[in-house]
């Protein structure tokens, strides 16, 4: 199993995916054809074209999952890339097209999975730790389960002196853990997770990540850390 889960696909002053190109090139070694899943945004053609342009230097042929029978497309490709956008819209589309199980099966049999933001959320057991507004209603919050723990992409640290009266990201994840017993990894911008079979590593910017676990104080995780133990998680949801 080869999985790359990005917190974000854009970075200040850089082109789409430019900040993660080295990690993408490593993960896509030997990949000739990739299926891009654009359903988190409304403009499927435009989003697919953006992904194809970004991946062109890697000499990877990109086809949109909306351009034909997705199952046939998956079977003819060596990688699937689920783009970011709104997680609820993405998951509803995956259910409507009955794609969750086929993606899970293909990845289990060697197809590379790349997710960014919403695409990272749907690689978790559920989408309950997304930051997105539920603009549509999927039939379930259950997602792909390519990793057995939860991720919070775009994680933002509390800002001292901030006058915003809503909950911080840390407080919201604390509320999630009051109801559920499963680790949540807060991926800061510019970071990603790389899974190769039973190995899991945090990559990207030196800002690292923040690990939340029920009954424990949040813990800083440095870039380069081995997080393989998280793959042994037995999640308990309510």
Automatic annotation (TrEMBL):
UniProtKB keywords: Dipeptidase, Hydrolase, Protease, Serine protease
Pfam families per UniProt: Peptidase_S51
Example GO molecular function: dipeptidase activity
Family: Belongs to the peptidase S51 family.
EC number(s) recorded for this UniProt protein: 3.4.13.21
Gene3D superfamilies: 3.40.50.880
This protein's name: Dipeptidase PepE
InterPro entries: Class_I_gatase-like (IPR029062), Peptidase_S51 (IPR005320)
Enzyme class: hydrolase
Naturally occurring in which organism (per UniProt): Amycolatopsis acididurans
CDD domains: GAT1_Peptidase_E
PANTHER family for this protein: ALPHA-ASPARTYL DIPEPTIDASE, PROTEASE S51 ALPHA-ASPARTYL DIPEPTIDASE
Domain of life: Bacteria
Alphabetical list of NCBIfam families matching this protein: PRK05282.1 (NF003642)
